[in-house]
Specification:
Blueprint: E1 8-9, E2 20-24, H1 30-50, H2 56-63, H3 72-102, H4 109-143, H5 152-178, H6 182-185, E3 187-191, E4 197-198, H7 210-215, H8 221-252, H9 256-304, H10 308-313, H11 316-358, H12 360-367, H13 370-407, H14 409-414, H15 418-474, H16 482-524, E5 544-552, E6 560-569, E7 574-578, H17 585-592, E8 600-605, E9 608-609, H18 615-619, E10 622-625, H19 636-640, H20 648-657, H21 661-666, H22 684-696, E11 702-706, H23 714-728, E12 732-736, H24 740-745, E13 748-753, E14 756-761, H25 763-769, H26 772-794, H27 800-808
Parallel strand pairs: 7-12, 7-13, 10-11, 11-12
Antiparallel strand pairs: 1-2, 2-3, 3-4, 5-6, 5-8, 8-9, 13-14
Helix pairs in contact: 1-3, 1-5, 3-4, 4-5, 5-12, 8-9, 8-11, 8-16, 9-11, 9-16, 11-12, 11-13, 11-16, 12-15, 13-15, 13-16, 15-16, 20-22, 22-23, 23-27, 26-27
Bound molecules: adenosine-5'-triphosphate.
Transmembrane segments: 27-50, 62-89, 110-129, 156-176, 221-244, 264-287, 439-464, 484-502
InterPro entries: AAA+_ATPase (IPR003593), ABC1_TM_dom (IPR011527), ABC1_TM_sf (IPR036640), ABC_transporter-like_ATP-bd (IPR003439), ABC_transporter-like_CS (IPR017871), P-loop_NTPase (IPR027417), Type_1_exporter (IPR039421)
Subcellular location: Mitochondrion inner membrane
Length: 816
């Protein structure tokens, strides 16, 4: 929650990126709470002064003013406080903000001191006046038999004025330090050159409005209206029930028939109320479920549309958290919490109205504690908001940690890292527990504190009510009946309960505001690399051209990975990319897929700039087979047909081409065999062949291939190689090559080192040149030989032909 108006502008701090920061303050801070308290003081004073209405007290309090029997002066004090204290605190806050900006009060220091002095003087004078009046009235009640008592509401006004004065003075004293600490709580907003507010990535920020939060439930409006109707009826019954409760007590003192009749009505009220309550709960919860289901779908769509760079910086676990827990928090906020809030507000207002009609002075006594509890609740809400956010963050970390370990269980097992993973998870859980401990303590202290105040006020009401019942015994025209006191006490409990539950809702709403900010941020984020729109050509000829391309990964902005890179791949040509590990080969392939956009230069496909083409359209014409293909946890058939709708015949055809048909047919369930999470139930070679089939079924114009570095067993190796060779035919191929046989076949070999082209030409040309390439090949040949000789010794099943094949493997790999 923030102030609408940016409070401060830091004009001199224009950064290189032309981002201009401005600051605003949180809506709930000491100054605003103080202003609200002073206003409340004024409103309560006026209401309590007006309540006796036509009675003489009201008129006499002005016309025949007397210090001990009028409260008109207290109303004047409250109004005076509004007129002086509020402008002064606003001015002091402005001066404090100016101090943050310029580092000193400049020439306004004295003005700040004067304001503070005036405030303290007014507030202390108010407190002294109210305290003296209260003390003298109490003295007169106890000791002066001639003293004519004030109307009950006026007594309540006196008590309220005293409590408000105390609270206000306390807050003013605290404001001295609080205003110095404004810098710690201010919120930074960044504005771009066009004056639009942007986030740290430069994306426009859409302001979170409460209306937007509720607009999520627009489609459920009818359901919510019906729910609200049921809520009104059930709250109405709840409001009249205590009245009839009191009537039952009084009826019992009159006649049996009156008692039966009243009890019967009471039963009807309860049954009817609960039926409506049931309908309310059902309608609101159902609406909430619908909202969250829709929200999750929309959110997932916006996450999956994001550019690849976004996923480099956002952890999967965290994003899943947004989808599951943040949406859940929102569901509760816009529906169930909303319904509860309306119910409690209605319950409180209704009960107070009934209480005022039953006995105004008793109500005034009860209201005296309200401001105190309100201040406590607001402070508590702020503290809880921070704690809950911390708790959610810690829990999110633990979830991400668990997900990472469990999804890589094989690596964990391989390194016997079970205890390490458990320890890491344990540390995160412990961190969340530390915050949880604070949450528990804060909850307990608040409940206890509010409990003491609420029970204190109930005891006060009971005492004062008991006194009125006693008055009624001595004189039936005075005081109240036991039935009215019973009803009053039930209303008091109802108000107290509503108040306590409302303050706990405050924390929930704060949490929802946090969750919705994160959700809307994700929903509003426009991907840097758009996923749709752009030209669709009637045909793509497969020519790829890099023109002086520079590229830096957004997640590592200081390291240029590709430098002044120019390369042309003719249609139908096969180009092999070789070079040291980390040189930038995979990055080139990523750029062809337009996972990222270059910083400088252009990449064209069939003569058209990649940025102008529809990404979905051209990606359908490019297929990629990576070193370690990722399969999805569905059937083999669905995996092969992942890129497009395909018939069973087409799937089988692709599988045959990829040398996969034979082994798939050997499975009990054939093409319906489930491959497990990320294809764990298949061997490395099988996975690769399914991935080749998945690429072939797209009939791509361009094939991007990242050769596997790990040697498969001889048979698999042969099968995969054959499938790859078949797939390459009549296509433009860019292959990150690790085998000599592949490099030999390539029309052009490009050696990439440190993001630049070190050499290019055919294999023979490059060998003849006696440059980097030749050195790399020789060095790796030696390494390859020794490695593979060992491999042959260990695995005796490798046939001679296979071993020579394996020797060829790893040739260009990992040249460092
Ligand atoms: N997503 C990423 N975010 C940030 N930096 C990255 C990312 N991917 C790769 N890099 C960095 O870019 C550089 C080039 O990496 P790239 O994967 O293109 O090399 P490569 O030649 O394909 O290496 P290898 O043969 O080992 O796969 C490396 O320094 C790497 O650390």
């Amino acid at each position: 929650m923030m102030d609408e108006i940016p409070v401060l502008e830091e004009g001199c701090d224009v950064q290189e990126s032309k981002i201009r920061p401005r600051y605003s303050l949180p809506m709930i801070r000491l100054t605003t709470v103080f202003v609200a308290t002073v206003f409340l003081d004024g409103i309560v004073s006026n209401v309590l002064w007006f309540t006796p209405g036509a009675s003489d007290y009201f008129i006499d309090s002005v016309a025949k003013y007397a210090f001990l029997s009028s409260v008109f002066d207290l109303v004047l004090v409250a109004v005076l406080k509004i007129l002086i204290l509020i402008p002064c605190i606003s001015l002091r806050e402005k001066l404090a903000l100016r101090q943050i900006q310029h580092g000193s009060y400049v020439d306004k220091q004295h003005l700040n001191s004067v304001c503070f002095a005036v405030q303290i003087a007014v507030s202390l004078a108010g407190l002294a006046f109210t305290g003296t009046k209260g003390g003298m009235v109490l003295y007169a009640i106890v000791h002066d038999s001639n003293y004519v008592k004030m109307h009950g509401t006026c007594e309540a006004l006196l008590i309220c004025a005293l409590v408000f004065s105390l609270v206000e003075t306390g807050m003013l004293l605290a404001s001295y330090k609080a205003l110095e600490r404004l810098k710690d709580i201010q919120i930074v907003h960044n504005y771009n050159e066009d004056g639009l507010e942007v986030d740290k990535d430069g994306n426009p920020v859409k302001r979170l409005s409460i209306m937007r939060l509720f607009s999520l439930a627009r489609e459920e409006l009818f359901m919510l209206l019906m729910g609200a109707l049921c809520l009104l009826v059930s709250s109405g019954t709840q409001m009249v029930a205590p009245l009839y409760f009191g009537k039952v007590v009084d009826a019992a003192q009159h006649s049996m028939s009156e008692l039966n009749e009243t009890v019967f009505i009471l039963l009807g009220i309860y049954v009817g109320g609960n039926l409506f309550s049931m309908a309310r709960s059902w309608l609101f919860t159902l609406a909430g479920q619908r909202v969250v289901a829709r929200l999750r779908k929309v959110l997932f769509q916006s996450i999956i549309r994001q550019d690849v760079a976004f996923f480099d910086t956002n952890r999967t676990g965290e994003l899943c958290n947004r989808l599951s827990s943040d949406t859940q928090v929102l569901q509760n906020a816009v529906t169930v919490n909303m319904s509860m809030l309306s119910r409690y507000v209605l319950q409180m207002i209704g009960s107070l109205v009934f209480m005022f009609t039953l006995n105004a002075s008793l109500t005034g006594v009860l209201l005296a504690v309200v401001p105190l509890v309100s201040v406590l609740a607001v402070q508590y809400g702020k503290y809880m908001k921070k704690l809950r956010k911390d708790f959610q963050d810690r829990l999110g970390d633990a979830g991400t940690q668990a997900e990472e370990s469990l999804s890589s269980i094989r690596t964990v097992r391989m390194f016997s890292a079970e205890s390490k993973s458990a320890d890491l998870y344990g540390v995160d859980v412990d961190r969340s527990y530390q915050v949880g401990k604070k949450l528990a303590a804060a909850g307990g202290v608040f409940e206890g504190g509010v409990g003491v105040l609420v029970s204190g006020s109930i005891v006060l009401v009971l005492w004062y009510g008991g006194k009125l019942v006693h008055d009624n015994y001595t004189d039936p025209n005075k005081g109240i009946t036991p039935g009215i006191l019973t009803a009053f006490l039930l209303y008091t409990l109802q108000v107290a309960l509503a108040f306590a539950l409302m303050s706990s809702l405050y924390g929930d709403f704060m949490q929802a505001v946090g969750a919705s900010t994160r959700i809307f941020e994700l929903m509003d984020r426009t991907p840097k690399v758009s996923n749709e729109n752009g030209k669709k050509l009637s045909e793509l000829d497969g020519r790829i051209e890099f023109k002086a391309v520079d590229f830096t990964y957004p997640s590592r902005p200081d390291t240029k990975v590709i430098k002044n890179f120019s390369l042309t791949v003719e249609p139908g040509e096969m180009v092999a990319l070789v070079g040291p590990s980390g040189g930038g080969k995979s990055t080139i392939v990523n750029l062809i897929e337009r996972f990222y956009d270059p910083d400088q230069g252009n990449i064209t496909l069939g003569g058209h700039n990649l940025r102008e083409l529809d990404p979905q359209w051209f990606r359908q014409r490019i297929a990629m087979v990576s070193q370690e293909p990722t399969l999805f946890a569905c059937s083999i058939r669905d995996n092969i047909a992942y890129g497009r709708q395909a018939t069973m015949e087409e799937v089988m055809e692709a599988a045959k081409e990829a040398n996969a048909h034979e082994f798939v047919s050997g499975f009990e369930d054939g093409y319906d065999t489930l491959v497990g999470e990320r294809g764990v139930r298949l061997s490395g070679g099988q996975k690769q062949r399914i991935a080749i089939a998945r690429a072939l079924i797209m009939d791509p114009v361009i094939l991007l291939l990242d050769e596997a570095t790990s040697a498969l067993d001889a048979e698999s190796e042969h099968q995969v190689q054959e499938a790859v060779d078949r797939a390459m035919k009549k296509r433009t191929v860019v292959v990150i090559a690790h085998r000599l046989s592949t490099v030999r076949k390539a029309g052009k070999v490009v050696v990439i080192d440190k993001g630049e082209i070190a050499e290019q030409g055919t294999h023979d040309e490059l060998l003849a040149r006696d440059g980097v390439y030749k050195k790399l090949v020789h060095r790796q040949m030696m390494a390859g030989f020794s490695a593979d000789t060992n491999a042959v010794k260990v695995d005796t099943s490798i046939e001679p032909s296979a071993s020579s094949n394996a020797v060829e493997a790893h040739v260009i790999n990992d040249l460092d």
